[in-house]
Amino acid sequence: MKKLVALTTLASVLTAAGASAYQNGFHAGANLAYVNTTSRQQVTGTRSAGYTFSDQSPALLLEGNYGVLECNLYKAVDLRVGYIFSKKKRAGAQLNQGFSSGVGFRLGTPVSEKTILFGRLALDANQQKFSYNFTDANGTSRHSDTFFDYALAPGVGVMWELSDKTSFNVLYQYTMSFATRGYNGNEHKFSDTPSAHHLGIGFSYAI
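Below the sequence we write its predicted structure tokens.
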């Protein structure tokens, strides 16, 4: 009987420690991120050329998510759309990033009344435009390729409840590209798939 009472008391303490002010339902917000990107491009033709791009850029993302906190388990599905402000130049080539979107799943647990620790796994699609000098039997001309880079993005974050409806979060993600789709595949190839580190802060509001 004493053991049962002790276990019940311990469970009550743990539940109280993990209680959170999180409000279940739909949330909308915005995120400002710092993106460190690395990619390598290879241009073919009668004169081939390779380009390595490494850049640090800001990104602005709008987000909507639906989250539920039950039995100290936080679960959420989110959708992000935004823009990466990046223009990277090399001699004879330029790589611009632009529209970005992604869908993610979050799983976490409250560590205090107003703090939730979570992991996030996302599938992202980032639009890029690559302009380059292409040389063939007709000479050298300026070509371009607009393509989408598809990537998996695992990450970890912390969310703080500022009030009953507003929250602040910090999220780190590592983007691992697995496919690219462009129009000039016979001219332009990736010698190494892009990767990126994302560090962002955001606010959200319960609708």
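The CA atoms of residues 23 and 67 lie 8 Å apart.
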